[in-house]
Amino acid sequence: MDIYNGFGFEKIVKDDINALTQIMKRAFDEDSRRHLGMEEGGPPGYDNGDFIRKWYFQNNSHAYKVSKGDEIIGAINVFICDDNVNYLGNMFVNPLCQDKGIGTVIWKYIEQKYPETKIWRTETPGFSKRNHNFYINKCGFKLIEIKNPKDKYEESYTLEKKM
Prior knowledge:
The protein has 4 helices and 8 strands; from the N terminus they run ββααβββαβαββ. By secondary structure, the protein is α+β, with helices and mostly antiparallel strands. The two termini are about 25 Å apart.
């Protein structure tokens, strides 16, 4: 386990799926409540472990659970590519721990863990204004594309950070 700024970062194993799925569900549902007025919502499989099974165990995936003390509080999944143009696939934090700078600590850990990265890219839902603020104002990403503009449910923002 790596310790960074008081948080533990450890590679995710299959035994972590159930605990992480519960946190992921709460995080995505909170975002859906805040921005869409819906009680539940997230990408396919976010609520039953299929999302983690599909995306967190691919060959170029580097997935970490994040803990404070003995409590898992979130996770991050990045895709590390041979050309050093890497992708943030997904990051989530327990809603009880949000708005406390933890996401920024998680992102700084990733940046220092992969110093060879030339460009980071990610995508986030158009409705998630908190995500936009986080990625652009806290992490230094720039908006490079809007897909499906004006579609409340399908709009997404592609973001990029040149290192």
